[in-house]
Amino acid sequence: MSKPAKFIAILYDILEKDSFQTTIRWTKDGKGFQILRIPEFQSNIMEEFFNTQNFQSFLRQLSLYGFKMKKNEKNQKIYNHPLFFQGNYQELHKIQRRKKAKENGEQYFDSISPQLSINNMRNQLEILRKQQQKLLMQMRIQFQIQFLIAKKINAIVDHFKENYTNEQRREVYEKPMHLLFHLIFGHKPEYASNLMEPLYEDLIGQLSPFSEFPCSPIQFAKLF
After folding, report:
1. Which of 6, 83, 164, 200 is the most exposed place for a label (fewest CB within 10 A)?
2. C-alpha–C-alpha distance, residues 205 and 208, integer Å
3. 109-144 pLDDT, tens per residue?
4. Can you give the residue ranges of the HSF-type DNA-binding domain (predicted)?
């Protein structure tokens, strides 16, 4: 069985996915499809499946494969092709790409008005702005978490220095140090060993070399 062109196969698979029905879907009779939300189609579907957000490029591809555009009774744009309809996957390989997008003066629907291009740019800028806001919020949260962890570490170190002798530190270090390591490792694994090693040295002093402790941060890191 011959395989359909990659663009055609991907487009058909997208239309068959229930998760995309609010963005792009078959018409009720299954003989064409419509794009309900162009901005979401660009950012969520085109970016993932076609490696671009250029809607004009997508329309040009439809033209090259012989798709036509018409408007229904609700003035919605419907794209169709005699061989591209729901349930006809076995004949998709017959849809061939044209060498030229326009021949004999025939006008295809891939031309986009300047106003539509401007609107698309505005939509993309709005999407980028929202993504930037999310990243900034995540950075603020990460900073606050790291600040709180640093305060807890300093408080623990000060407590040990003020209330325990070297011998006592050695006896009680294991459980709180394990808990502290898990806290740091769960937040920033790459920082765990670097942060914990000097803490061990500071809390336990020179009673025993760091490498002698069976549950050192370095060994812990290797277990995860």
Report:
1. 6
2. 8
3. 444 445 555 666 777 788 888 888 888 888 888 878
4. 3-98
